[in-house]
Write the structure tokens for this entry.
Amino acid sequence: MLERVVVSHSEAETERLGERLGERLRPGDVLALTGDLGAGKTTLVRGLARGLGCVEPVSSPTFVLMHVYEGRLPLYHFDAWRLGGPEDLLGIGAEEYLEGEGVAVLEWSERAEGLLPQERLEIRLEREGAPEDRRIRLRGLGARGSELLEGLA
């Protein structure tokens, strides 16, 4: 397991971190995001999408549960906020996206524990200091999760 902590001082910095990470992603990668409302999860996903070459505007999938963005790889953007647990994600066929040809990103991933693969990148966003400041904790689980963090500033 490899861990990194990044402090972001603006939405633009959070997006740039996501973009650098998005450029490194491969088919089957899973990113599990946690953090309070307004912590910057969707902001980070906007950067991930840009790093994957997606041009469609990114928005929170809270009310539709999942958005798909096309780029170098498909980006499957889930929001588990309204779900009761992992079984609700299974009900919408999430397992095929978690093991698919694209990249799966789950906001509120703590509501999907048990469904997530062992190899993943966990990202926790927390408010810190000034209103725009965020502490972003990245934890790579398994070989692939750790590989995603190697060399990431």
The two ends are 17 Å apart (CA to CA). The longest strand covers residues 120-127. Residues 24 and 148 are 7 Å apart (CA to CA). The domain at 2-149 is CATH 3.40.50.300 (Rossmann fold).
